[in-house]
TrEMBL record:
Keyword tags: Signal, Transport
UniProt-recorded name of the protein: Transporter substrate-binding domain-containing protein
Start and end residues of each Solute-binding protein family 3/N-terminal domain: 30-253
PROSITE patterns: SBP_BACTERIAL_3 (PS01039)
Gene Ontology CC, one term: outer membrane-bounded periplasmic space
UniProt lineage: Bacteria, Pseudomonadati, Pseudomonadota, Betaproteobacteria, Neisseriales
InterPro entries: Bact_solute-bind_prot3, SBP_3_CS, Solute-binding_3/MltF_N
Organism of provenance: Deefgea piscis
Amino acid sequence: MFKIGTALAAVLVFQLAQAASLEAIQKSGQIVIGVKDSSPPFSQLDVKTRALKGYDIDFALGIAKRLKVKPVFKTLESDDRIPWVKEGKADIVIADLARSAEREKEVAFSTGYFVTDTRILAKKGRFKSERDLAGSQIALTSASSSVKLMRKSFPDTKLAEFEDKPEMLKAVLAGVVDGMLGDGPVMTATLAQIPAAQRSQFEVSDFALDTKTFGVAMPKDEKTLQIAVNNALVDMETSGEAQAIFNRWFGPQSSQPMGRIFRISPSRN
């Protein structure tokens, strides 16, 4: 009985490992993409249309188009991103996921499609420099790369981990924590969500704690899929589509304008 159960488990593991191969994806005619639904401007659920939209969503659509398959979106939380890839719950994950040496031991990453930094949203004047982090309590997303950053570089800062940014913002507005940490553009978008009567009391820090590169996550050893995703991203750059997507979400007319300091290239950003 034990031998049969072990054999079945081995078959299931093998099937999951094969589920995200390029051949299997193209044969099925669809690609399952793990994304967030509450991380604007990268991805969010439009309350009117009930459709997902954002920078990550546009790139997901561009990749699916170039692979000639239908995109099937599945929403996840930050701490689901790596497990979903490893467990075969998603073929790829595009969810403002920063590359790191630790994460690359578990999953494969595409070339970078966005470069950003980490900033703090808090009451005005609370964080004028990194020195003000000492002794403070900061909210951040569990399983985010920022957790490791804070523990290593700012050990005197108390961390409060949350599943999503709306809960973090509630904690900030209630004064439960001193501030919340996240990607600069996301913090700017979150600031805009604060009720107008309170918004002027808050700000996003002028200083950044680090710089990071977002990549598409996929199973390790799926080199053919990784090459195909990289080729799709590079094609989006050379065709001008990547720039257009950036302008849509971060250009002068967007809610959080910023300069584009990177280009998507075949070599890793």
